[in-house]
């Protein structure tokens, strides 16, 4: 008897979720729904992936969670509003929006939803469909065999060469012609990029736990010249007068790729290297998208430990959360294939109420922009614009390959850009090194997005750089100067001492720069919140205007790259904004006064 409960529940759910399911406008003749067009087609799997001939895929029992993304309306009006909310001096500055207000502005047409449901009904999978929480997509959990019928696709197992990682993907899929203009993309289908998302740590080398005590000459207190500790950063970035206790707000650190932080390593790190004597030494771990939070991971991640240790050491008593995000490995044979985790990660935050959101989010993970399909990059970037309008300051690492490594696109030589660093709705952090003077770190990421145009907030400084900088005249043909330029800002990137499995090591990368700058932003956010103001939210319009005088312009050193492909490749740090170090590095004391006055 209990067997009949399941289908009934499914019916009840779908009829609540889709009250207008068979509205007049959504009725289509069945024949129209079978008139399809190819939505996307790849001649070969992307570089680095190959068909796994030996894999056994049971298409009747392996499940896929399909996300049918509906065309949104009103995105550009919403983004105009989001920009006003982030622009100092505008009457709407700081009036961050609740998610339901954003959803109402950008909701897909009812007709789009009804058409898709009509199609799913005709194809016999309507009972497995549900509306995504923000109303922007319809989710269908179905067997591979059913998804193949739905999309006219053929799914196979592909392996990432040399990594033993597998995904179930198709090289082509089709949609009914009548859905054109209603469905923007369907995933997982032809996008393989999930496992190439990588953390931006580039070097790990052992140091003694006592390195900082054997310094000979210190130009800046706590900076030995060979390693960076929280004390060094506090002195270099003018944090030393900041002795008050701060507890308001929430600092967020993103984790992916089964990078787990160790609490006992944090305890060791804090006992040895903490700067604020009154600072807290704990964080909480929140699992996102079926991620996990082991208390004592057998091999803690260097990225996770770095992020957690520096965020904790620099944010005083402000609560810290590590968001351990699952979803990158597609489970073969058992479990359900999902999407790559950025969408799920952002879904998680956008579903939180405003009081539960972190004020600042530090993300040290990225990928080559050219490996991310345009529709996918656009969607993720649009979600970042929503997070900013909700009031979250998002900082993203610029990458560790300078202007690129492969530096070719087909037969064209070009600098390689990074994602999501090139999204105009995040604040991108480049790298510096040394302190007499502080200069650009040679491998720090920088450049011009190939897919996103230049946003208005940086128009003036980027135009100035393009017309006055003389150091890039030999490389103008290798980047698109109309693209969104990054980094926006920079911070130290080399030889950060972290503790991992009880030992101290030095690590290098814009993975160091990002939690450093993000922690200082969290201190600014917490201070504003404690005095009854909103957080800074999306930072860039503030950084490029009022905030810029709180930054130290970096004018020496350069970023390089494209070794063996493009001679002379790179960008120099010069006076004013430049694509090596952006607007410069933080002077916390000055930024605090500026953020309080905004
Ligand atoms: C350069 O970037 C702009 C803005 O993103 C874009 O409209 C244009 O098509 C790009 N040009 C080339 C040659 O890629
Ligand atoms: C450091 O910040 C304080 C404000 O807290 C400011 O008065 C001082 O000028 C800053 N120091 C430097 C060297 O910029």
TrEMBL record:
GO terms for cellular component: extracellular region. Residues 1-17 form the signal peptide. Pfam families: Pro-kuma_activ. It comes from Coleophoma cylindrospora. Its cofactor is Ca(2+). It catalyses: Release of an N-terminal tripeptide from a polypeptide. Its EC number is 3.4.14.10. Keywords: Calcium, Glycoprotein, Hydrolase, Metal-binding, Protease, Secreted, Serine protease, Signal, Virulence, Zymogen. Transmembrane segments: none annotated. The active site is at residues 303, 307, 511. This is tripeptidyl-peptidase II. It comes from the Eukaryota. One of its GO terms (biological process) is proteolysis. It is found in: Secreted, Extracellular space. Ca(2+) binds at residues 553-554, 576, 578. Secreted tripeptidyl-peptidase which degrades proteins at acidic pHs and is involved in virulence. GO terms for molecular function: metal ion binding; serine-type endopeptidase activity; tripeptidyl-peptidase activity.
